[in-house]
Amino acid sequence: WRGESRGSPQQLAERYADLAASHSEALRQREEREWHNARLRQENARLRLENRRLRRENRCLFRQALLGPGPDKPPTDPGEEAEALRAQLGRLQEKHRRALRHLRRCRAAGRPEASGLEDGELDELLLEE
């Protein structure tokens, strides 16, 4: 279309300005999404580490409960110990229920928190309940 003008120079300038503004806005939104995704990835990594730590702690506590007090600890009253373990179990079960509710909401919303689990892990947890 050499030599053909599809509008006045002013119209072309306005159109160019509109395109430049749209492009700038698209770039800004992209940068914002990338920043938000990076922040979510960091939070996800932090939560995975916390999850691993809690699993290790849980295994350790479970082993201690199975093995009983060590040689340097005086034996405790079995009734007291059983009551303390029941209370701890209740707290852990409540935490587990809250975590599963959160994961269900994340999955329903299609958010990445639920997709960070290994394949089938969430399904397995949800079936356990």
From TrEMBL:
The lineage of its organism: Eukaryota, Metazoa, Chordata, Craniata, Vertebrata. Residues 37-102 form a coiled coil. Residues 109-129 are annotated as: Disordered. This is TUSC1 protein. Residues 116-129 have a biased composition (Acidic residues). Keywords: Coiled coil. The keyword Membrane does not apply. The keyword Coiled coil applies. InterPro entries: CCDC89-like.
